[in-house]
Amino acid sequence: MKTYIPKVEDIEKRWYLVDAEGKVLGRLASKIARILSGKNKPIYTPHLDVGDFVVVINAEKVRVTGGKEKKKIYYHHSGYPGGLKSWTYEELLKKDPSRIIRKAVQGMLPKNKLGRRMLKKLKVYPGPEHPHQAQKPQKIEL
């Protein structure tokens, strides 16, 4: 038996549309990360980017459990002394709801060049409109 390794030109990229309204953040992020990395395909290869594009709409309506609205804290450091900034889930939801889903998915992808390439295929929008109608994304329920 020979191990099948897909060639870059053989990899077919699809577009998926996910509605985040009423979904739990962690469960949604893990399923999105699985699609972005290509683990849902039979041709999955760890060292190649075989994943698909994911468009997430209604990011502002994603929910968390266990009182994390007030407890969960997001951090960002500028790299300078004293440059640590922090926001609670509620504050970040008002400021930039798309960053919440992006950070959750980013934590579930590889921490290398391949993971950064996978994250570029994630498109998150706070409302129900998105500019990717031309790609004809297939709506999926997660």
UniProtKB/TrEMBL annotation:
Keyword Ribosomal protein: yes
Classification via InterPro entries: Ribosomal_uL13 (IPR005822), Ribosomal_uL13_bac-type (IPR005823), Ribosomal_uL13_sf (IPR036899)
Keyword hit for Ribonucleoprotein: yes
A GO MF label: mRNA binding
Pfam families on file: Ribosomal_L13
GO cellular component: cytosolic large ribosomal subunit
UniProtKB keywords: Ribonucleoprotein, Ribosomal protein
GO biological process: negative regulation of translation; translation
SUPFAM superfamilies hit by this protein: Ribosomal protein L13 (SSF52161)
Function text: This protein is one of the early assembly proteins of the 50S ribosomal subunit, although it is not seen to bind rRNA by itself. It is important during the early stages of 50S assembly.
HAMAP family: Ribosomal_uL13
Family statement: Belongs to the universal ribosomal protein uL13 family.
Quaternary structure and partners: Part of the 50S ribosomal subunit.
Protein name: Large ribosomal subunit protein uL13
Organism: Aerophobetes bacterium
Gene: rplM
